[in-house]
Amino acid sequence: MMELIFALAVGILTASGVWLLLRPRTFQVIIGLSLLSYAVNLFIFGMGRLRIDAPPVLENVEALDPALYADPLPQALVLTAIVIGFAMTALFLVVLLASRGLTGTDHVDGREDIR
Amino acid sequence: MNAVIDHLIIVPIVLPLVCGAVMLLLDERRRTIKGGIGIAATISLLIVSVILLRQADMMPSGSGVRSYPLGNWPAPFGIVLVLDRLSALMLVLTSVLAIAALLYSLARWHRAGPRFHTIFQLQLMGLNGAFLTGDLFNLFVFFEVLLAASYGLVLHGDGTTRVRAGLAYIALNLTGSFLFLIGASLAYGVTGTLNMADLARRVPALSPDDAALFAAAAAVLGTAFLMKAGAWPLNFWLPTTYAAASAPAAALFAIMSKLGVYVILRLWTLVFGHEAGALAGFGGNGLLIVGMLTMAFGTIGVLASQSLSRLAGCSVLVSSGTLIAAIGTGSGAVLGPALFYLASSTLGIAALFLLIELMERLRDPGADVLAVTMEAYGEPEDEDEPAGEVGVAIPAAVALIGGSFTACALLLAGLPPLSGFIGKFGMMAAILKTDGAAIQASTWMLIGLLTVSGLATVIAMSRTGITSFWARMDDSVPRVRIIEMAPVVCLLLLCLGLTIGGGPALRYMEAATQSLRTPQDYMSGVLPAQGAAAEIGRTTP
């Protein structure tokens, strides 16, 4: 059940993210990128296998049974990915605003469609 | 070997980082100091990379790999840097381009926007790190470092064109990074490791179900790298972005698109080599087809380009496509000449990007009123004579620019006597050598494309050359500074050097591909012996 909900969440986030990414307004693109990054972060997390009530940090070095612990590596990877994704989104936001200021439109091509 | 030499491998990453950080502390107006630090840093980078190259070259062919555990954690658990002939070659190329681009930018581009020098150094750090790392996630981090810096460099100089191109470039590369993350984490989920050598060791032992998942991970990762290399159909951003970027930035980007090619070459030969069991050679045909399509697209683009900078952008595509197709043929003998072609085309394209701006000045001398001029070029006597008469001496600057342009055209088209010819000829000779077996249709197509792309480059570049150099000149002589012309000439002279020293250079490339073809060397060079690894696994908390 947990796996199903998790997979659905990743799928829905990805689908919405991709759809928004393909939209013509820069704001939609950045929201799409954010949703995609959430989906990817969840995906990385899931790659460490979903576990409940299992600490990732080893406490008792003497009796070491890896099966009792969650995989700490994907959690570290997610942390890195979140930080990098955050910085990139902020940078993209700046470029987006610069583009809005320079071209006077929020269309991704820098000009409105000719209808 | 003494201790200092052993730690030299970390220098290409740490040195640009430290220099970039120091430059942040300096006021924006002190550009001379920043430029001095930058030049000193890039020259030391070149020295270090040449030393590393010599070290890599002196390693015996059976163990051509040296690993450097960061934080002294043993290989599958900690992150390692790996030096072999291929990564050393890429380091040298990077630092050569860096010196040329930086020197060129000192003429005026570094004044066009804030923090140019810092961003430039961080870009170098990302590139060097990506070439050296032996860990998949660490590769992602260095990719992000260099991409973040490249966003800054694309936008350097500001202006609507750059921001518009930068917007698409950033959005695309962010998406590419997500693909990278998905692929890397899927690969981790299947194999339980992120170390490239460990990955290669575990792939043959995968169960069929896991192997399918791993193939999916490799395909997603490959898509991300192909996108960065500029493979069709994910390359529409490349000519626009490279054309919009300032000249020194674009010259440095010439190596950035080769990074995608490098990663594919490294991972593909390592993970899907002959020993990979069921997955051996996975996706080779795909690479071949994508590479050929990219070549075709680039060729059409070269012919259709209206402006010179787009033409140069499309030549990047042709060069990437050629390399991807060469990797995709899966024949080890092609890789040596392909590496030679990589080196020569990277230098040639970078020189062309730098040259383009000087040529634009030739077309419209008024654009250069702001530039500080030097009288070293352009003899004053010429200005007394009316232009357009028969027998008027061509001003030295125009002659130099024209000569360099011709050299670039020869390099990119792969015509003798410059090094592009050796690379292309070597590749053709290698794919035609099938040891008696019938030559496949795809091989003929690849040879045809190699020839046609060269022909198209010649046509397009001679067309541009005629309109630029044989057009009626106004009385004014283009104003070019020595530090703008010198990098271009030096890059082209290096290509000439590659031609003259073709034998030793090709021998080096062959040795580099030899170690690529034997992934066992890489694995044993990076990972401790099996028993020792188990020992560490037990004792490490």
Structure keywords:
heterodimer, A: 115 residues, mainly alpha, 3 helices, 63% helix, B: 541 residues, two-stranded antiparallel sheet, 22 helices
Task: Describe this structure as you would to a colleague.
The complex is a heterodimer of chains A (115) and B (541). Chain A has 115 residues and is mostly helical. Chain A has a single domain, classed as Orthogonal Bundle (Helix Hairpins). Chain A contains three helices and no strands. In chain A, helix 1 runs antiparallel to helix 2 and helix 2 (26-46) runs antiparallel to helix 3. Chain B is built from 22 helices and two strands. The longest helix of chain B is centred in the N-terminal third of the chain and has 32 residues, at 160-191. Chain B starts with a helix and ends with a helix. The chains are: A mainly alpha (115), B mainly alpha (541). At the A-B interface, helix 2 and helix 3 of A face helix 6 and helix 7 of B.
The mean pLDDT of chain A is 86
Shape of chain B: globular
Could you tell me the radius of gyration of chain A in angstroms? Answer: 20 Å
In terms of quaternary structure, the protein is heterodimer
Order of helices and strands of chain B: HHHEEHHHHHHHHHHHHHHHHHHH
Average pLDDT of chain B, to the nearest integer? Answer: 82
Biggest pleated sheet of chain B: 2 strands, antiparallel
How much helicity do the residues of chain A have? 55-70%
User: What order do the helices and strands of chain A follow?
Assistant: HHH
